[in-house]
Amino acid sequence: PTPTTGLLAYWTFDTKSLNWVASTISDISGNGNTGTLVNMTIGTNQVAGKKGQALFFDGSVDSVSLALNP
After folding, report:
1. Could you tell me the pLDDT band of residue 69, with boundaries at 50, 70 and 90?
2. Count of other CB atoms within 10 angstroms of residue 23
3. Which of 10, 17, 47, 59 could crosslink 29 through cysteines, CB 3.0-4.6 Å?
4. How far apart are CA 1 and CA 19, in angstroms?
5. Is 37 exposed, middle or buried (0-12, 13-18, 19+ CB in 10 A)?
6. What is the DSSP string of 9-68?
7. Is the pLDDT of residue 70 over 60?
8. What are 8-50's pLDDT values in tens digits?
9. Which residues pair with 36 in a beta bridge?
10. Is 5 exposed, middle or buried (0-12, 13-18, 19+ CB in 10 A)?
């Protein structure tokens, strides 16, 4: 399926939506599109953001993976 309209997912990348133990980030859109953190650790990727916490992506191997059909 392909998206046609509307919000598919919303990740805030803050401490409320991140689960470092499970390596996941929660989708707060209500659509259940939880992402899996790839090659990320709390020690190297969690940084101070403009408002609260943020994630640092190194541009090489850090990413958030999504299921094709959540």
Report:
1. low
2. 16
3. 10
4. 28
5. buried
6. -----STTTEETTTTEE---SSS---EEEES--HHHHEEE-SSSEEE---SSS-EEE--S
7. no
8. 888 888 777 888 889 999 998 888 899 999 998 888 887 878 8
9. 24, 65
10. exposed
Residue that is written with structure tokens 């940084």 in the block: 47
Asked if 13 and 25 count as a contact pair (C-beta separation under 8 A), the reply is yes
Compute the distance between CA of residue 62 and CA of residue 60 in angstroms, rounded to an integer: 6
Tokens 């707060």 map to which residue? 28
